[in-house]
Amino acid sequence: MRKWLLGLLAVLATGAAVFWFSANKTTRNLLTNLPTDRNVLFWSTPQRDAAFRMVDSLPILAQSSTIAAGGDVLPLPKGERLNIDFDIAAYMRNQRTSGLVIVHDGRLRDERYGLDFDAQGKWTSFSVAKSLTSTLVGA
């Protein structure tokens, strides 16, 4: 009986190790900082950092809907980078900013990412998306 139990534990440990090392960085971060409460106001900063990247794929935390991209997606024309007198990277670190896009006169003047994000990163914005959408519609 003891051999069976040790064998089962070895199989489970091996399976867990294979799962852990085959999971991407975002999934591993979520597993090590899994929120214990559905109320996001009580999540710690590491829990928010981990879960806000994946909350749309965790139905236990939130329901989400995917809106398909339109057929005519056009990139913004590139513009010359703005000459800004302060350290944007330091500002983004201090403010815990995941992305900054500056559009000026219809041209993309600057695009930067923080918190280990890139242009394909996702972050749950909750009601911020409504404000940004209404601003873009107004513009």
Describe the overall structure.
With 139 residues, the chain is mainly alpha-helical. The chain is built from 5 helices and 2 strands, in the order H-H-H-H-E-E-H. It has helices at residues 2-22, 25-32, 45-51, 88-95, 128-138, and strands spanning 99-104, 107-113. A two-stranded antiparallel sheet has the order 1-2. The longest helix has 21 residues, at 2-22. The protein is elongated and about 75 Å long. It starts with a helix and ends with a helix. The model has no long low-confidence stretch (mean pLDDT 83).
Topology of helices and strands:
Layout: H1 2-22, H2 25-32, H3 45-51, H4 88-95, E1 99-104, E2 107-113, H5 128-138
Antiparallel strand pairs: 1-2
- SSE pattern, N- to C-terminal: HHHHEEH
Number of helices: 5
Give the helix proportion (percent range): 25-40%
State Rg. Answer: 21 Å
Strand arrangement within the widest β-sheet reads 1-2
Low-confidence stretches: none
